[in-house]
Amino acid sequence: MHIMDSCLTVTVTRGELVESVHRVALAVVDAEGRVVHQRGDVNRRRFLRSAAKPLQLLPLLECGAAERLGFSNSELAVMAASHSGEEMHVELLRGVLARLELDVDLLKCGVVPPLSRRAAAALEARDQRPTILHHPCSGKHLAMLALCRDQGWPLDGYLHPDHPVQAAVDTVISSMCSYPRASFARGIDGCGAPVHGVPLMAMALAFSRLAREESEDIRRVRAALTGYPLAAGGTGRLVSLVLAAGKGSLLAKDGSEGLFCVGWAGGGLAMKVEDGSDRALAPAFLEVAGGLGLLDAGSTGLEELRRPKVRTSRGEEVGYVACSGLETDLL
């Protein structure tokens, strides 16, 4: 067992100087949920943010609603995604809305530009504004409304913590994390949905279970995310590249403020960049993934993310971002 209190460090070097330093806490658990490696305080509660989305999808499957409503795996993937707002994501969600005969204004996530710069530029070129369906959390909100429709719960107020759909989500997250609901830290996400604060080790355990347990519902979530990595994130996104590179063996989800969770047959990992910077995530995760033997060093699209270059506005290379302070063999 490797237990260390100090965080990983990701440094940003420009020219001769280290310009910035990001600290990364992480927990690695084995298949029994025992912590086998940690950096930083893995017992301190941190918000799951959007890493909760695969868990939040489970109530829709557990009651049989996903099957009754005829959802495909690609549709389930975008419902569990923080999607980039590309055309494929919007079209999948439009199809679900039409089938459910729901008005898009029922989704209370708000309107923001697509995460994809290319998708945002395409909208601007057509003189179009973003819609609710371009919001990265619109799939999650649609999944919640679909569950309400199936169960006969009120569509209004579905984001209220006391609404039945949120109670169902609480139950699943508590069970998958082996963490009591009464101990959740509570907050509201950027999209207006409740968020759950649990320890990093509990997040790692939940993703370990998502990756290995063989209930029909968990297998369906796994098949959706690993089978449709682009629907589960977007073009060039770390989460989609990891899902694709894992070829079905890795279950991954990112979250705002520098959170990344991964599960595999033998365990799970949760990491948090303490200052919330997303730019530290890929170098830190890929360093850890290499130590765990989870990914090939040359996995398509990932090699450049291990040590991203710092460039000028003209594209000249003037520095790099890199992770340090990790043993080469974690387990």
Describe the structure.
The protein has 331 residues and is α+β, with helices and mostly antiparallel strands. The protein has eleven helices and twelve strands. The strands form two sheets. Strands 1, 2, 3, 4, 8, 9, 10, 11 and 12 form a nine-stranded mixed beta sheet that branches. A three-stranded antiparallel beta sheet has the order 5-7-6. α3 crosses α4, α7 crosses α8 and α8 crosses α9. The longest helix has 14 residues. It is globular and about 60 Å long. The mean pLDDT is 94.
Question: How much helicity do the residues have?
Answer: 25-40%
Question: Gyration radius, to the nearest Å?
Answer: 19 Å
SS strand fraction: 15-25%
* Category from helices, strands and their pairing: alpha+beta
- Alpha carbon gap, first and last residue: 7 Å
H and E order:
EEEEEHHHHHHHEEHHHEEEHEE
Task: Please provide a brief summary of the model.
36% of the residues lie in helices and 21% in strands. It has 331 residues and is of the alpha+beta class.
Write the layout of secondary structure elements.
Blueprint: E1 2-3, E2 8-14, E3 17-30, E4 35-39, E5 45-47, H1 53-62, H2 65-68, H3 73-79, H4 87-100, H5 117-125, H6 138-151, H7 164-177, E6 185-188, E7 194-199, H8 200-212, H9 216-227, H10 238-246, E8 251-255, E9 259-264, E10 267-273, H11 281-292, E11 309-311, E12 317-324
Parallel strand pairs: 1-4
Antiparallel strand pairs: 2-3, 2-12, 3-4, 3-10, 5-7, 6-7, 8-9, 9-10, 11-12
